[in-house]
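User: Just a sanity check before I run the rest of the batch. Below are the structure tokens for the first item. I only need the designed sequence back.
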């Protein structure tokens, strides 16, 4: 049932404050101000490396997880798409944690990668939405997301719930590795608890994004730029736009522009820049200026500080609430999803059932 929404995708985008809160609730002990994982029969402190395997949108959760886990726990993380990982004879070791991320828990390549890791003696964990799925049954440690059924083919609420669980995993690993004291953890818990309200604030920009979607819908190509976790969001934005609006889109690490992709820029290519203010903001802004100098039309997604500094001269700006860097990807995912959604609606494509795609990819 779509309720009063036009599409399941729209309904699922708007469910995010509730389902992210639900998911966080099962990982946060608010009285102790701690992040907790379900009972496990292995020692997290013995983990020396992490490998995250997934497909599509779920693989971008892995890229963001890499930033979080390496920064908080100082454990090296490798991220790969399942279809590459399973066939490349990866180096496995007993001190490694293999993490699969999947909404359906049935994606053929991810399931095969999970079985490959298990056969190689690797301890596995799964961030999975469907609790009865094959992956949920086979992982050593099930880390459920509580997104509820996701009907729209384009993943939205599963993505932000996966991020919430990935953050919980990063914090637990950091504590197990002696990298996080109680005060630091309590502060992280406070920020995580703020995520649903911040997602709500992001959703409030829906009408504004709908208005600019008509311009983007005219484009033949769209570029998305970001750094750090926002690079993963750039990839996610481009994937979402491609799959539901059929507009060609690419996500790039902002710093890579001058190594080739900048040749694509002209007046006809909108560039979506995802850049919360922070230590890397200046760097991204200078990449944005390079693009603008070549006639590129920029849509800047940032917070009040970022927009005050660099919002002038953009085709459009979208103001996100100011949030802690750990929850920023959960918040900045929202305008990226809404933009793809409204562009697809403006183009009149079948938003919930895009051509050539299936919700659960059980063949390789
Ligand atoms: C994109 C999308 C896909 C899935 C991918 C993995 O919007 O939905 O890229 O993320 O097919 O599916 P799961 O998470 O079920 O393994």
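Assistant: Here's the designed sequence for the first item:
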């Amino acid at each position: 049932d779509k309720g009063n929404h036009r599409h399941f995708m729209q309904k699922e985008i708007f469910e995010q404050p509730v389902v992210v809160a639900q998911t966080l609730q099962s990982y946060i002990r608010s009285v102790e101000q701690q992040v907790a994982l379900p009972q496990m029969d292995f020692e997290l402190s013995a983990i020396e490396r992490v490998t995250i395997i997934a497909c599509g949108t779920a693989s971008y959760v892995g890229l963001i997880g890499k930033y979080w886990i390496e920064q908080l726990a100082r454990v090296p993380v490798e991220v790969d798409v399942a279809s590459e990982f399973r066939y490349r004879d990866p180096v496995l070791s007993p001190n490694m944690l293999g993490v699969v991320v999947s909404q359906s828990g049935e994606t053929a390549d991810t399931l095969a990668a999970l079985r490959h890791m298990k056969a190689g003696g690797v301890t596995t964990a799964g961030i999975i939405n469907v609790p009865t799925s094959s992956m949920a049954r086979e992982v050593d440690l099930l880390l459920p997301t509580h997104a509820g059924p996701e009907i729209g083919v384009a993943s939205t609420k599963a993505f932000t719930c996966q991020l919430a669980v990935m953050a919980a995993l990063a914090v637990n690993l950091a504590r197990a590795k002696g990298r996080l004291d109680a005060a630091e953890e309590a502060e992280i818990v406070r920020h995580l608890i703020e995520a649903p309200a911040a997602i709500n604030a992001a959703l409030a920009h829906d009408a504004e994004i709908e208005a600019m979607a008509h311009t983007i819908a005219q484009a033949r190509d769209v570029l998305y730029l970001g750094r750090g976790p926002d690079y993963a969001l750039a990839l996610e934005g481009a994937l979402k736009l491609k799959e539901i609006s059929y507009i060609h889109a690419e996500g790039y690490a902002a710093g890579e522009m001058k190594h080739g992709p900048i040749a694509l820029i002209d007046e006809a290519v909108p560039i979506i820049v995802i850049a919360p203010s922070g230590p890397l903001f200046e760097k991204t802004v200078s990449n944005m200026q390079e693009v603008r100098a070549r006639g590129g039309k920029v849509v800047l997604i940032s917070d009040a500080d970022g927009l005050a500094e660099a919002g002038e001269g953009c085709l459009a700006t979208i103001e996100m609430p100011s949030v802690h860097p750990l929850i920023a990807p959960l918040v900045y995912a929202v305008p990226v999803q809404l933009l793809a959604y409204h562009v697809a609606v403006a183009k009149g494509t079948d938003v919930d059932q895009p051509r050539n795609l299936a919700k659960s990819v059980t063949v390789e």
